[in-house]
């Protein structure tokens, strides 16, 4: 499907600099631009490619002023990154999606499936499942008894949703994710560990996206809750009885231990570990590999932390500067200790 620069500008409320009739039919990174592609420039470290790119149209911020002549048609927008995201979403929406229920799927008679859904071969849908309109379930998905899905949900191949879990509207769950497996609950006894039944569910609200091979455990009682707008990367572990606040995002390999409450608009970098039974306030930003054991500053929120145990990022930076000098400081300390011992010995000899 082809669009002119004029049509694109109208869609993203942009200002054209160049040929409004330039035609594009694909997307490309600015450094790999080809004729007929639309690219974007949001990070100025890529500015050099703007002057040599073969892309036909490039989105730039309104504040940007080229340092050299540009052969591509520019579309100036308030935020080039947001504008390209809007274009990509529009492009995805123009693709024709599959509909229909495969005769190779296993669907319980009591299941209710909304209009315009796609159920691929080898999908299993259990008893009393409720699936809203416009949902897509790809091969190998398992939706167990009593699950509810809202409208326009997408479950990519081999997603498993355990019994009784509730999923809202426009939720995207990527391949291999597991929703509602048992929480890690065991009571130590003299003979070993006795399993604590996990009788709760997982509740996922609207507009959540869950990455590949991510696991969200069902609660011991009640619900593990993922509030609206949350985005979880691949390989994230959310333990039982956790509550994740609206619009929080987590990068790959984040682990959140049981019964922790995370506020709204938090951002957790890759491999962040969050202890159990603690509370994070709104807008806690944790750098990659940070360890969050709790504390007043985390509960209060509006803080950026790094390291383990997590420190405010300014303190972490200062501490890191000291840490790398520890070997030299240790050597100097030993020298001072030796000199002090020599002074003491000399004073004792004089006495």
Task: Describe what you observe in this structure.
The chain is 19% helix and 30% strand. The chain has six helices and 40 strands. The strands form six sheets. The protein has a twelve-stranded mixed beta sheet. The protein has a ten-stranded parallel beta sheet with strand order 9-12-15-18-21-26-29-32-35-38, with no helix packed on it. A nine-stranded parallel beta sheet has the order 10-13-16-19-24-27-30-33-36. The model has no long low-confidence stretch (mean pLDDT 94).
SSE class: alpha/beta
Domain module count: 3
Sheet of most strands: 12 strands, mixed
CATH homologous superfamily title of the largest domain? Hexapeptide repeat proteins
Helical region count?
A: 6
> How would you state the average pLDDT, rounded?
94
Question: How many β-strand stretches?
Answer: 40
How many angstroms does the end-to-end distance come to?
Answer: 98 Å
How much β-strand is present in the residues? 25-35%
Shape: flat
Query: How helical, in percent, are the residues?
Result: 10-25%
Quick description:
By secondary structure, the protein is α/β, with parallel strands linked by helices.
Core attributes:
40 strands, Udp-n-acetylmuramoylalanyl-d-glutamate--2,6- Diaminopimelate Ligase, Chain: A, domain 1, single chain, 30% strand, UDP N-Acetylglucosamine Acyltransferase, domain 1, flat, twelve-stranded mixed β-sheet, ten-stranded parallel β-sheet
Could you outline the blueprint of secondary structure elements for this entry?
Layout: E1 3-4, H1 5-12, E2 15-17, E3 23-24, E4 26-27, E5 37-41, H2 47-50, E6 57-61, E7 73-77, H3 80-94, E8 100-101, E9 106-107, E10 112-113, E11 118-119, E12 124-125, E13 130-131, E14 136-137, E15 142-143, E16 148-149, E17 154-155, E18 160-161, E19 166-167, E20 172-173, E21 178-181, E22 186-189, E23 192-195, E24 201-204, E25 209-210, E26 215-217, E27 223-226, E28 231-232, E29 237-238, E30 243-244, E31 249-250, E32 255-256, E33 261-262, E34 267-268, E35 273-274, E36 279-280, E37 284-286, E38 291-292, H4 296-300, E39 303-306, E40 311-312, H5 313-323, H6 326-350
């Amino acid at each position: 499907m082809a669009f002119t620069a004029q049509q694109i500008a109208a869609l993203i409320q942009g200002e054209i600099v160049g040929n409004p009739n330039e035609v594009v039919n694909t997307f490309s990174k600015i450094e790999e631009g080809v004729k007929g592609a639309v690219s974007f420039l949001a990070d100025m470290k890529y500015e050099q490619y703007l002057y040599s790119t073969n892309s036909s149209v490039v989105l730039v911020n309104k504040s940007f002023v080229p340092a050299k002549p540009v052969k591509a048609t520019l579309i100036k927008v308030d935020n080039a990154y947001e504008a390209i995201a809007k274009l990509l979403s529009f492009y995805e929406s123009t693709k024709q999606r599959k509909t229909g229920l495969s005769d190779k799927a296993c669907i319980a008679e009591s299941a209710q499936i909304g209009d315009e859904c796609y159920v691929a071969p080898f999908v299993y849908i259990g008893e009393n499942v409720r699936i809203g309109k416009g949902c897509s379930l790809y091969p190998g998905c398992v939706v167990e008894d009593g699950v509810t899905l809202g409208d326009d949900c997408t479950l990519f191949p081999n997603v498993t949703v355990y019994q009784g879990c509730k999923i809202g509207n426009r939720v995207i769950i990527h391949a291999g994710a597991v929703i509602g497996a048992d929480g890690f609950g065991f009571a130590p006894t003299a003979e070993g560990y006795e399993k604590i039944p996990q009788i709760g569910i997982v509740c996922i609200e609207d507009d959540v996206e869950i990455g590949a091979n991510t696991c969200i455990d069902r609660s011991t009682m009640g619900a593990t809750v993922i509030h609206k707008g949350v985005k979880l990367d691949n390989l994230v572990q959310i333990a039982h009885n956790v509550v994740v606040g609206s619009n929080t995002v987590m990068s790959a390999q984040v682990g959140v231990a049981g019964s922790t409450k995370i506020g709204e608009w938090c951002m957790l970098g890759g491999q962040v570990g969050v202890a159990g039974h603690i509370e994070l306030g709104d807008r806690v930003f944790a750098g990659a590999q940070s360890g969050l054991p709790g504390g007043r500053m985390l509960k209060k929120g509006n803080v950026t932390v790094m390291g383990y145990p997590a420190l405010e990022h300014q303190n972490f930076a200062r501490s890191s500067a000291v840490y790398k000098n520890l070997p030299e400081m240790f050597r100097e300390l030993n020298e001072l200790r030796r000199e002090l011992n020599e002074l003491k010995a000399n004073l004792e000899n004089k006495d």
